[in-house]
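Quick question: what would this complex look like in 3D?
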Amino acid sequence: MARDTGIGARVKRVEDQRFITGKGRYTADLNRPGQAHAAFVRSPHAHAKVGSIDKASAMEVPGVLAVFTGEDLAADEVGALPCGWAITSKDGSPMVAPGHPCLAQGKVRYVGDPVAVVIGETLSAARGGAEALEVEYEELPAVVDLDAAQSSDAPLVHDEAARNTAFEWELGDKAATEEAFAKARHVTRIDLVNNRLVPNAMEPRAAVGEYDSGTDGFTLYTTSQNPHVARLVMSAFLNIAPEHKLRVIAPDVGGGFGSKIYVYPEETVCVWASSKVDRPVKWTCDRAEAFLSDAHGRDHLTHAELALDEQGKILGLRIKTKANVGGYLNLFASSVPTYLYATLLSGQYDIPAIYAEVDAVYTNTTPVDAYRGAGRPEATFVVERLIEVAARETGMDPAEFRRRNFVTSFPHQTPVIMMYDAGDYAASLDKALELIDYSGFAQRKSQAAREGKLRGIGFSTYIEACGIAPSQAVGSLGAGVGLWESAEVRVNPVGTVEVLTGSHSHGQGHETTFAQLVADRLGIPMTNVAIVHGDTDKVQFGMGTYGSRSGAVGMSAISVALDRVVAKAKKVAAHLLEASEGDIEFKDGQFTVSGTDRSIDWTSVALNAYTAHGFPSADLEPGLKEGAFYDPTNFTFPAGCHICELEIDADTGHTRIVNWVAVDDFGEIINPMIVEGQVHGGIAQGVGQALLEHTVYDESGQLVSGSFMDYTMPRADDLPSFSLDFTVTRCPSNPLGIKGCGEAGAIAAPAAVINAITDAVGHEDVAMPATAEAVWQAIRKSPAREAAE
Amino acid sequence: MTSVSMTVNGKPASGEVEPRTLLVDFLREHLRLTGTHVGCDTSQCGACVVHVDGTAVKSCTTLALQCEGADVLTIEGLAQGDQLHPMQEAFREHHALQCGFCTPGMIMSAIDIINRHGGVPDETTIRHELEGNLCRCTGYHNIVKAVIAGGEAMAPGRAAAE
């Protein structure tokens, strides 16, 4: 029975039934009795002082119930949104991170910064009130350009942050790296822009806050990847309500990609306002608001250098990065360009010396935080572009150059904190080369040239650190939280099982994969297993889903809890079979006295655990329920090789991806169908970054690309079908051997695309997004063409 | 307020609406058919696609009043009892959904593509005709597979008339 649904089986998803029949329940689908609606008044200016706000102007609109501003929040001592990861600058000073008020306190710092909320009987009344609200602004000069923001004459986003700098951080051994460069035979130097992205989960954020004056308790229904963290922040930092008086429910959530990790002003205000108006308050973000108010991703400027010896072995790597953090340092924003970025600069390579400097810089733009991959795509783009360019400059085959420098023995300590525990990088490279028919590429390239097409091939042999993360490790690096995960396995008297997990599924299919693990272990049908998540009243605590952690950390917690349930069930079985506990074997749902034919099945043990007749009370408690808090011992290190082959129409600059091969090593795989889906989606987002997605601000800080008409999301005809395969090295750092798969595609893809385009056009000056126009311009600049002209 | 009447998923439906009420809001807020979603405000994402008199429309840019007397089909009306529509089944079979938010609109558009072509068009055509539906999760790979499989199940053996 468990064979068809066990670990490694391509089980169809349990959750699909409700989604394909229109019965999913997303936050915006919920309506509470007596509900009022919220509309936010947002700053139209990138930088301004907020003067008087004439509440009466909105209150005159029929149906408006209330108007609240930053003053009202301050009067109730509602705190500002904090940054939860402390970074220390290289001079020893702490980061400068003023909190983000949920509604402006005297100043606004980006277009879309919330200034006031209008509560109305209906959504149109609330929006009408928001439209009518008169707010005086004194506009201030804005700083928008990242490269110019640290100059001495740039306007200050925060008076406390001199040169608009939140921190100037370093990692690695500067002296050793300088020494490596001093003895280098060849140095490769590149300058890179990692373009700012808007996450754009298809479900916009939404919230319903509800206050119950009878219990003095609050409930928040919201689009969250981690409802317990939302509750913790709202309780501990924002003073909304103590944790035992605040229930946070994240029902079906339509994608997150990082953007729904954070606690935002709007959700917070909805909960708070529900007690002020004593009615449930609902807010649904529209897409235009989402573009302005969801935390953005990436946005780095980097200078990078690679030192090589005469044999093409890497001696050292150094980078200097400016990371745009936007108007405020968001919840996890400080960790993204530091410990999630520079710690991955060794890539898959044995690099003796690395030195990284990162400046986090404020600008009058939407805050930037973790977006699918979070720091690791930026690191991979730097490393894989450097490697590709270095191979070209030294006349080496890019595959062979990589192979020559791969880490080949494990564990491997990099110069930038990480200890790689397992991997086989040559294996994934070899498989990918075979799948793409690398040896036939030259012929395909000349064939394409005959048809007026420029054909290119690009590699990305990436690594990431997932399973985030060992609490002790992240604590020592500045995290304000531990990053374990919890699980509770509840066995009912009839033998069915509920698993409560602190992970949260918003597309990842946990109701299927987690149930596969349980069914496999207990020898029961998957239909007898329910996965419960996303409700702080049901699940005691959890850290949620991001950083590809739900398999490696969340399922490991379930695995430990299952071990405990089986241990307890063996005690019950021993009592029932009148045998000693040590003689009981459990296999395929059957408890057997070793070496005999005496056995009892799972269902009978479950029932007897609750009838508890004749239990020796001192040694055996009734019931069958166990929990676990699993804290990993190390990060996990998924890695692999993506190869992009593409053709460019030389006349139009249009790029068509003709083949994409991905060979990933995610360790043990629970459900290959779901893992492949994660890789497909990740590649699409990475290709989107490389070819299409462009976040554009004008000089005054207005977001020019603020809708799907202006910001190019990848569509079906922008993408090819993908060829996927896997290699497996088991992860030694968790009981299931899992590494994580959710971000790999987004991490690997941008470098593969740009390496392929630069290969096709014959020079390195191609920035992301490589739109048709940008590629057309790049073709004009190609050395061959310039020589011809 | 104006009254509006139409047939939704085979049943009569009517309500008092403001003239500016969009079809999607009539379906979601008046009829509580929340399977039809709103993912943008510029008619780009396609999460709101339903069929009106047999043709796919974006219900976020259709007035409820425009559908007076019309026959409207939403994702909730596709299955016949426990019997899923072949396109619904194909989406599950081929893992063509992850978070599920774009899925109702995607399925409604997919059925429309097959209906219009009278069979299963080639992959390039399918990708081109899915342009009006955005998915951020799947990279479209499995959606395209599902549209082909669902189309074949809807009209066995029929390639699209070119």
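Answer marked as accepted. The longest helix of chain B spans residues 103-117.
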